[in-house]
Amino acid sequence: MIRVTVWNEYLHEREEGSPVADVYPEGIHKAIANGIVSDDFQVRTATLDQLEHGLTEEVLNETDVLLWWGHRGHEQVSDLIVNRVHERVLHGMGLIVLHSGHFSKIFKKLMGTSCDLRWREVGEKERVWVVDPAHPIAEGIGSYFELPNEEMYGEHFDIPAPDDLVFVSWFEGGEVFRSGCTYHRGQGKVFYFRPGHETYPTYYNETVLQVIKNAIRWATPKHGSLPIYGFNGPLEEIHTKKP
Ligand code: ZN
Predict the structure, then answer these.
(1) Structural domain count, the chain
(2) For the packed helices 28-35 and 206-219, what is the interaxial angle rounded to 10 degrees?
(3) Hey, which of 40, 105, 129, 141 would disulfide with 82, CB 3.0 to 4.6 Å?
(4) Sheet of strand 65-69: strand arrangement
(5) Is residue 230 part of a domain?
(6) What is the per-residue pLDDT for 243?
């Protein structure tokens, strides 16, 4: 079983009179958790307001892949927890950063750049093109898929060059954006996936959910023993020595 934790700041959805509550009455994390149900996944959720943001040592140690949705509350996430998540990624936990999570402390720490971009929110059409059809994250997605209403994110997106660029988005207003980017950090695998503005029902879209499921399977740690660092005794007898 792949142990998945869906983390959401869960702020917009609980604001009085917010349209986000109509789209995600139980929160974005619940919509995603319900949407990715699979025989090989064991899914739990965590939110900002919980003790240690729901990301205790125990929870993280029992997480193979962590999903991250944040927007308004990035600065409310404690550095202690960011460092803990960072450490877990370096030791092999997969991390999938969604939409406005591009500005989260954890994503910026892992990227080392500003992660800034252009944006516009008018609910225009987004067409997401598959640019790496052989990539496991693109499995079953076809050549492209469309979201009728989304927020626009445009280049330049200030990220390091991704290991693999899986998706590129085109927006009705004319911009393009690197929408699906993979990275390796330490032993961990990281995937950034753009769609998912809080006022649109993007996380009910079957194709979006399929991409997230593919990304979870891709990001799951599969390696064996952890690497060893520091002093190393010789495996063979050494005959060459300093005179
Ligand atoms: Zn947004």
Answers:
(1) 1
(2) 80
(3) 105
(4) 41-47, 2-8, 65-69, 94-98, 188-193, 176-185, 164-171, 118-130, 144-154
(5) no
(6) 79
Q: Ligand 1 mean position to 188 CA, how many Å?
A: 26
What was the pLDDT predicted at 49? 98
Instruction: Give 197 Cα–ligand 1 centroid separation in angstroms.
Output: 4
Q: Are 217 and 64 in contact (CB under 8 A)?
A: no
222: which 2 tokens?
């599969």
Is residue 166 one of the residues assigned to a domain? no
Ligand 1 center–CA 207 separation, angstroms: 19
Cis peptide before 239 (omega within 30 of 0): no
SS3 label, residue 188 = strand
Residue 120 within any structural domain of the chain:
no
Q: How far apart are the first and last CA of the chain?
A: 56
CA–centroid distance, residue 225 to ligand 1 (Å):
39
108 in a structural domain: yes
**Mean pLDDT per 10-residue run, the chain (243 residues)?**
98 94 97 98 98 98 98 98 98 97 98 98 98 98 98 98 98 98 97 98 98 98 85 95 82
Residues of the domain holding 29: 2-112+179-219
- pLDDT at position 103: 98
Q: How far is the CA of 61 from the centre of ligand 1 (A)?
A: 30
CATH number at residue 13: 3.40.50.880
